[in-house]
Structure formats: C-alpha cells, structure tokens
Amino acid sequence: MPLRAKRSNLFWKDKRVIVTGGGGFLGRVVVDQLKAKGCRHITVPRSARYDLRKTSAIRKLYTQARPDMVIHLAAVVGGIGANRENPGKFFYDNLMMGVELMEQARRMGVPKFVAIGTICAYPKFCPVPFKEDTIWDGYPEETNAPYGLAKKMLLVQSQAYRQQYGFNSIYLLPVNLYGPGDNFAVSSSHVIPALIRKCVEAKARGDRQIIVWGTGRATREFLYVDDAARGIILAAEKYNSSEPVNLGAGFEISIKKLVVLIARLTKFKGEIVWDAGKPDGQPRRCLDTTRARKEFGFEAKVSFEAGLKKTIAWYERNPL
Description:
The protein is of the alpha/beta class. The protein has helices spanning 3-13, 25-36, 55-65, 80-85, 87-107, 145-165, 191-205, 225-238, 255-266, 290-296, 304-317; strands spanning 16-20, 41-43, 69-72, 112-116, 169-174, 176-178, 209-213, 219-220, 222-224, 245-247, 253-254, 271-275.
C-alpha cells in the first residue's frame, strides 16, 4: 500500500463519524469508502429514529455516537418538478437540519463538521465556470432557489461559527451527481436518471418517441458518485477552512447532447420531442475546480461516458 494511503487509513482508523443521509445515494458510497479506509465507528442515523430537524433528536444522536466528525449529507431533494411543487418543504427541512446539526455539534464539542452544499446555491446568471467567490453575486435560479438558499445558509453558519467560536467546519459544493443507485422515481428524479428511465422504458414498450422537458439549450456538469464521495472524504481528512470548495468534473454538456448520448447508450432509436413549455432551469452550470485540486488534491477520475454506461447497466438490472 502506498505511504499516502497508509497515512489516510491511519487517520480514519479510530475516528467516530456520523454520516447523515448515509443510507442515501451519495451517503452509501461515502460510508463504503470510509469502511474501505478502515473507519470502524460509523453511525448512520435513520429518520424513523432521529428527526434531524429537532434539537432533542440531534442531541440524543450526538450523545450516543460521541462523534469526532459529522459529515452532513442528508437533504430533501428532487428535480425541477419536485422543487416547484415543494418550495416550502425543501426550504424548511433543509434549513432546520443544517442549522441544528451544526449548532448542536458546536455546543457539544464535536471537533469537525463537514457540510455539503449544492450547486443550486449559485446565482442564476453566473460566469462560467463558477468560481467559489461568485456565490454571492446574484439570486439562484427560481425553481430551486428555496432549496439552494437553505443549503447556502450552512456556508454563512460555518464562517460565522469559525469566526466567533473557532469551530472547525467546512463547506463543499458538489455539482450534479449521477451513478448506480441514483433516484429513478418519476416524481423526484434528477435529469440523468429521469432520462435513462424514459429511454429504457420507451425502448421496452416500442415507443416511437420520448418527450423531454425544456429546449435542450441549458448546460450541465455531472460528477460520478464515487468521485464525489472520494472528494468529500479527502476534504474531511485534509481541509480545515470555511472558504467554500467546488467538487466537480470540469466539463459542460448541453441537455440536448445529453439526451442524444443517453438515447445512444440505451439503444433507444425513436424521436426526441422537446416540450419547450416546461422550464430549462439554470441556463448553464459548470464549476471551476481549481481550489479542490490545490487544497486537497481532488480531481475526478471517472469519464462521463463510462459513468453513464455503469449507471444504465445498474438501472437495467434494477428497474422500478
């Protein structure tokens, strides 16, 4: 084993880590990677037992787990449709979880808090690639602003708590994620799993066309879930500043090209029909990942097409 890997494994060996959202899409991969590094004390709180919007539940969790670190991945999330239907819920649930988890961590002496933000926190019209220093230069895209702003408050809290209390918290901004185990539910899935499901099901039924929201002109960047988990763990181990850090793959693709690519990979040969009456969402998304590379050596490894093939193969084995 290389010396760097040995040092990393020694770092995690005796750490007591809480991973909120550890049973979710990203959380399961983070937990698996922590275990692979030899982390033996991982607590994954379940919502049936711990309502993370409630102070009493959080204090109970911290008292029982005695964490050295909290990695806060839990979130109430969804695609454009889900955000439009649940703006109040997305704002309240995400805000209260984050604020109370960090506040009680500070009060109870947890040594480090890792807050996971969202690319939805960036302004709607932001110079591309998005640099961390531009995060306050405008209002987020309207359809996901309540969610984005609730998660953005973790950055404010992190910086304020470091300034006043010397509390060690960090704030990471992952771009749109995808990969095996993603959410493929019609009502709440993001663009990649939604398109994969649409193409696979249309092919199975013999449909001659699929209908896709928007114009296809918007662009997005996507990060494979294994890469995202690795970036979070690297930052948790090595980064100790409240300046926000982007986690991305450093590329941009239009939704139109994305649909064509997924149709090709799923072997759907029908027509693609665009419903321009539905929203595109934010016009462009692509992150500057210089800070992550400089501060803790993170770079994405999985190519986009390879990641899509793995995601499609997983869904074909596990259809809904």
